[in-house]
Design goal:
Blueprint: E1 3-9, H1 13-24, E2 29-32, H2 41-44, E3 48-49, H3 61-82, E4 93-95, E5 110-112, H4 115-121, E6 133-135, E7 138-139, H5 142-155, E8 159-161, E9 166-172, E10 175-181, E11 185-193, E12 210-220, E13 230-233, E14 236-240, E15 245-249, H6 263-276, E16 284-295, E17 302-305, E18 311-315, H7 321-336
Parallel strand pairs: 1-2, 1-11, 2-8, 4-13, 11-18
Antiparallel strand pairs: 3-7, 4-6, 5-6, 9-10, 10-11, 12-15, 12-16, 13-14, 14-15, 17-18
Helix pairs in contact: 1-5, 1-7, 3-5, 3-7
The structure holds flavin-adenine dinucleotide.
Length: about 350
Amino acid sequence: MKTWDVIVIGGGIIGLSLAIEVRKRGATVLVVERGEPGREASHAAGGMLVDSGAETPAALQELAIASARMYPEFAQELQVESGIFVDLREQGAIVFPPLEDARQQPAFKVESLPSASLAELEPALVHHERAAFFLKERSIDPRAITAAALETAKRRGVDVSSGEEVTAVNLSEGKVHGVTSRKTSYFAKKVVNCAGAWSGQIAPHQFPTRPVKGQMLCLIAPSRGTLTHVIRSPDVYLIPRSDGRILVGTTVEEAGFDKRTDVATIQRLHRAAITLIPELRNAKILEDWAGLRPGTPDSLPILGETSTAGYYVATGHFRDGILLAPITARIVAQVITGENCDYDLSAFSPTRFSIGSSEHH
Ligand SMILES: Cc1cc2nc3c(=O)[nH]c(=O)nc-3n(C[C@H](O)[C@H](O)[C@H](O)COP(=O)(O)OP(=O)(O)OC[C@H]3O[C@@H](n4cnc5c(N)ncnc54)[C@H](O)[C@@H]3O)c2cc1C
């Protein structure tokens, strides 16, 4: 009977980067994925690596900043090991704050942008003399970095079983001894739940995660020079890729596990993009899609060991899972392998939600 040291449930960016970190520490690892690895939230994301956004909860700032610092090395390593180009872009973002707090700086680490320099930085952008800030942040192609993590994991000897939906973590005498999928059982003394928006569906049910839908579309820019920086405005954001694609997002919807897009929303996003960059009027829509962010009641991730010995979790990364992958992989690997953890994880403890509260129903 084959056994592993650690089983990771879920092959999104969180499960795959964690599998690599655990494997680097010498453990044998199996990733069990319901569908194809990297086809859920990690496939749907925009890939902005925002470590100081107004939406980042204060308790998460320290990890967000640390993860942003780790990104160049993380991306480089996965790109070199996998041979997959991950499109890490360093050009920064132009941020238009909401009109009501136009004079308030959206975060630290920003520079005000006079209209003249704005016109120089992004000639195609229409800004109507609005207050704008420059932020030194990066972006990445989430599909590419997830594919690179999958390839790297395999090359490093992580086993991956696709098309296997885990229904339960198996326990005996209060200790973990593996997982049951719809087809079979797998054996390990340590299991980590990285099932994203679906984390709460696996028995024993311990996590109040919920899906938060986001719709996006992808345009082909008329020319590669149409847009260089990420543009963040209150109604829309635009993320350029080096191959000339421009991603336009997004919505934040409580719509259950529904991943359909609707025409009205996609058109509204497209119009908002055209208002910022009129040249995009004739840009072709390559694709539209929706993904499910793993949300939690307090909008903080759930990280660490659960109340069941040997059962760990790394989920609930909501809007920041691409950014938070490197730091999550490092600290949860530290917890799983019994190393000293670099950070105090109490704010993210799986036991912070009282069992039986309404959030569990
Ligand atoms: C529209 C949109 C835009 C976003 N933009 C950004 C951004 O700009 N920057 C950023 O940092 N983040 C962004 N995010 C958030 C980011 O995508 C997520 O936080 C991140 O992808 C979560 O990764 P994950 O691995 O936890 O989840 P997922 O990628 O969803 O992976 C979970 C995996 O678990 C599998 N699974 C589920 N149940 C089971 C089961 N029972 N058995 C086996 N496998 C199972 C699923 O099939 C899936 O592959 C965005 C998200 C969306 C939807």
